[in-house]
Amino acid sequence: MGLQKTEQKEYAKFLYTEKNLTQKEIAVKVAITEKTLTKWINENEGEWKKLKTSLMTTKPHQIKNLYDQLARMNDEIKNRQTVTQSMMKPIKLNKEGKPAEQKPEYDPVVLSNVPTSKEADIITKITSAIAKLEAETSVGDSVNVGMEFCEYVRDIDFHLAQKISEYFDMFIRQQLQ
To answer: How many CA atoms lie within 13 A of 163 on its CB side?
Structure first.
């Protein structure tokens, strides 16, 4: 016995938002046409697309990206070659074309393993973004918890899980507005 239409739609939604499958693969798994799947994806002002986007931009995913950026920047600074270069002052010449003053041997400028002011600013901004993300709850976080809960209830009572899923979808739609 095949899935009922509502079950097919819920399963298709799960596969579309949670798994990295093509629309063709989803249509085959759910036993529907690609045209039907496209219709479901686009209805309710593209709700599935918004949901998928919010799941892809979850707080843990964003925090991981920021930590990766910070690590790359710190590694680049740490592994940067130390360079000393000489900056010569212009020398005034007298009427005979000889130096009027003694030239300095060198004025060293050292480029080292310390961040530049621009790099320090970027590091500060990334660190602040991480702190902010770690302190707040996003729609993606809510979706993750809700979907895990629905999966848990589905194993116990499939029809109750469908009802909870409907209410949860309404809740998420409201959060996305």
So the answer is: 4
CA distances from 93 to 126, 136, 168 (A): 51, 66, 83
Radius of gyration in angstroms for the set of CA atoms belonging to the chain, rounded to a whole number: 30
Structure tokens at 165: 């899923």
Whether residue 89 contacts residue 101, with contact meaning beta carbons closer than 8 Å, is answered with no
> How many whole angstroms separate alpha carbon 69 and alpha carbon 126?
8
Q: What are the φ/ψ torsions at residue 114 (nearest 5 degrees)?
A: -110, 135
Mean pLDDT of each 10-residue bin along the chain, 177 residues long? 75 84 90 91 83 74 90 90 59 73 54 82 94 77 84 90 88 77
Give the Cα separation of 48 and 9 in Å (integer): 11
Q: Are 164 and 153 in contact (CB under 8 A)?
A: yes
- What pLDDT does residue 9 have? 87
* Full DSSP string of the chain: ----HHHHHHHHHHHHHHS---HHHHHHHHT--HHHHHHHHHHHHHHHHHHHHHHHT-HHHHHHHHHHHHHHHHHHHHTSPPEEEE-PPP--B-TTSSBSSPPPS--EEEE-SS--HHHHHHHHHHHHHHHHHHHS--HHHHHHHHHHHHHHHHHH-HHHHHHHHHHHHHHHHHHH-
